[in-house]
Amino acid sequence: MVAVAVSAAIILFSSSVANVALRSWNKDGGRLRNNIEARAVFDTLATDLRTAIFRQSETEWLRVTYDKAVGRATTYQIPQTPWIRFFVPALDRDETAGTLSAISYRVAFDDPVEANGPHPVFGLYRAITDPEKTHLQAFGSPETVQTFWRERQASTTAPGNLVASNVIDFDLVLWYWPEENRRLGTIDSNTRKPKRLPTGTSLRVVGMHVETEPAVPDLRHVSQLYAADIDLTILTDKGSLELGRNHASNKDIIQRHGYRYGGRVEFLTTGACLP
Asked: Is 93 helix (H, G, I), strand (E, B) or coil?
């Protein structure tokens, strides 16, 4: 009887240790997966923004607008999240004629396997168009670019474009040099301070000109664009499952299971002087 009792105690102790180890492994494993995924996404987005092309020609080279109320009102919604469109010589572009690809980044709440499927999750989507189609269908005028993106708006969040799941916050903060401080090629960050573009301000770059809505009077030229602060919040799988079950606790769920990643990317706008 003593031997049985000792054996039972050993088994119970071993089981408890195993359960603790398994829970710790699951938690750390989820965090590791999030770190790897988030780092890869941030590096790709940073590289794309850093190599964004700006030219004198009357093309809409950059557009930032905002999608509103992404998600479900009955569970969880992101109040607003940026939709970014621009052109880059992407390294992962298809091998077709041309060098520039149209790129889009936006967050959506959709099924990652089947478009409009039964199991939607939040995710960040990166859509890239091959250089030949970009050249033939996007370039020409600002209106041509707008038509190009309007026709592709739904497909930008197709399942194949998902680059990170469980992204429940994506923010882009733009910084610029005020008009009175702009001296093309001579801006000195040690003596001049950049200004932050007001939250929610839409922006488009056409040729060398910058247009904003609502209007920002001291931002007019593309050379004034300084940098973008990228901020991503990604939930663990457990947090994603809990999100929306109790609307009142969503903030607490994000605090406990969400991880933030981000950094600053400086624009290379010297190419705006080229035709």
From this structure: coil
Q: Is the peptide bond before 217 cis (omega within 30 degrees of 0)?
A: no
Q: Helix or strand or coil: residue 272?
A: helix
Q: Which residues contact 98 (CB under 8 A, 6 or more apart)?
A: 130, 131, 132, 134, 135
Tens-digit pLDDT profile for residues 65-117: 999 999 988 789 999 999 999 999 987 777 777 889 999 999 999 998 888 88
Cβ distance 112 to 123 under 8 Å?
A: yes
Token code pair at residue 169? 């916050």
Q: What is the pLDDT at residue 137? A: 93
Residue with tokens 């999100």, as numbered in its chain: 243
The CA distance from 178 to 189, in Å, is: 12
Cβ neighbours for 184, distance < 8 A, ≥ 6 positions apart: 221, 223, 273
* Length of the chain (residues): 275
pTM of the model: 0.83
Amino acid present at 214? P
Give pLDDT tens digits for 146-179: 999 999 999 999 999 999 999 999 999 999 999 7
| E strands, the chain, in order | 60-71, 77-88, 101-110, 121-129, 162-165, 167-176, 195-196, 202-206, 209-213, 225-235, 258-266
